[in-house]
């Protein structure tokens, strides 16, 4: 077999292994998935009228706020899902299975590739489930064309890939699963500090740079523009640049840590 065929075979095996782990131990994935769903229901049904009044100039409109908040929650779902990847990678590194893999004639990067592809797949499934909840409570995207839907899906996959590589790096540097979950917590907190729930212009002036100059805000604004027809402006290029930059950074960080021989 060629080197490429061996790499594909070993990566596929590692992918099946990670998907089997996710199926056998679904509690972590379900717990991380429940966070964005609970936030969606909380902000729509508890804070929806008040938040929509602030955004809409004093007129409560829960349906308008559903349209506003769902794109942010979809990206927050990705951040929540990849936390499980950091925990899974940390478990592999501390439970001895990686030491066994190092003694086997397998394509070494396939271990990380299996984690990344499996995590992206789980993130996409989680986004679909959260999106289904959003549609069930009133979210509609009637103006988006097929090309815009395709672009939105591509952005979600690209964003999930970028965050997954960062999460893999966090898992590799963590001494245990608990530390991995804590190290990856910013991936859940950053959406709360973005434009997911309220416009950046409505935030205090000193806080606006924190919300604006981070990866979630341009990605959220781009997704809103694609699904709802709002203005995208420069956010599309910023979102793609953030995704590519984080993916490259996470890839080289993760592979350098993984390829370093244990002491």
Automatic annotation (TrEMBL):
<keyword id="KW-0812">Transmembrane</keyword>
<keyword id="KW-1133">Transmembrane helix</keyword>
<feature type="transmembrane region" description="Helical">
    <location>
        <begin position="25"/>
        <end position="46"/>
    </location>
</feature>
<feature type="transmembrane region" description="Helical">
    <location>
        <begin position="66"/>
        <end position="90"/>
    </location>
</feature>
<feature type="transmembrane region" description="Helical">
    <location>
        <begin position="236"/>
        <end position="254"/>
    </location>
</feature>
<feature type="domain" description="ABC transmembrane type-2">
    <location>
        <begin position="27"/>
        <end position="261"/>
    </location>
</feature>
<feature type="transmembrane region" description="Helical">
    <location>
        <begin position="185"/>
        <end position="207"/>
    </location>
</feature>
<comment type="similarity">
    <text>Belongs to the ABC-2 integral membrane protein family.</text>
</comment>
<protein>
    <recommendedName>
        <fullName>Transport permease protein</fullName>
    </recommendedName>
</protein>
<dbReference type="InterPro" id="IPR047817">
    <property type="entry name" value="ABC2_TM_bact-type"/>
</dbReference>
<feature type="transmembrane region" description="Helical">
    <location>
        <begin position="111"/>
        <end position="137"/>
    </location>
</feature>
<keyword id="KW-0813">Transport</keyword>
<dbReference type="InterPro" id="IPR000412">
    <property type="entry name" value="ABC_2_transport"/>
</dbReference>
<keyword id="KW-0472">Membrane</keyword>
<dbReference type="InterPro" id="IPR051784">
    <property type="entry name" value="Nod_factor_ABC_transporter"/>
</dbReference>
<keyword id="KW-0046">Antibiotic resistance</keyword>
<dbReference type="Pfam" id="PF01061">
    <property type="entry name" value="ABC2_membrane"/>
</dbReference>
<keyword id="KW-1003">Cell membrane</keyword>
<dbReference type="InterPro" id="IPR013525">
    <property type="entry name" value="ABC2_TM"/>
</dbReference>
<feature type="transmembrane region" description="Helical">
    <location>
        <begin position="149"/>
        <end position="173"/>
    </location>
</feature>
């Amino acid at each position: 077999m060629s080197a490429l065929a061996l790499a594909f075979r070993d990566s596929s095996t590692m992918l099946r292994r990670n998907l089997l782990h996710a199926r056998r131990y679904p509690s972590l994935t379900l717990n991380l998935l429940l966070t964005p769903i609970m936030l969606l229901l909380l902000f729509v049904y508890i804070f929806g009228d008040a938040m929509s009044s602030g955004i809409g100039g004093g007129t409560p409109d829960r349906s308008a706020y559903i349209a506003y908040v769902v794109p942010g929650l979809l990206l927050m779902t990705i951040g929540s899902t990849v936390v499980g990847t950091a925990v899974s990678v940390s478990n592999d590194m501390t439970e001895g299975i990686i030491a066994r893999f190092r003694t086997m004639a397998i394509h070494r990067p396939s271990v990380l590739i299996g984690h990344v592809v499996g995590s992206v797949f789980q993130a996409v499934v989680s986004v679909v489930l959260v999106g289904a909840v959003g549609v069930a409570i009133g979210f509609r995207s009637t103006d988006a064309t097929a090309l815009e839907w395709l672009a939105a899906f591509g952005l979600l996959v690209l964003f999930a890939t970028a965050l997954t590589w960062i999460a893999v790096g966090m898992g590799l540097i963590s001494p245990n699963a608990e530390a991995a979950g804590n190290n990856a917590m910013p991936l859940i907190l950053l959406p709360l500090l973005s434009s997911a729930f309220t416009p950046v212009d409505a935030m205090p002036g000193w806080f606006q740079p924190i919300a604006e100059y981070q990866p979630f805000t341009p990605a959220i604004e781009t997704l809103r523009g694609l699904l709802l027809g709002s203005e995208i402006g420069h956010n599309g290029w910023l979102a793609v640049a953030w995704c590519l930059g984080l993916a490259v950074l996470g890839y080289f960080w993760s592979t350098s840590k993984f390829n370093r021989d244990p002491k």
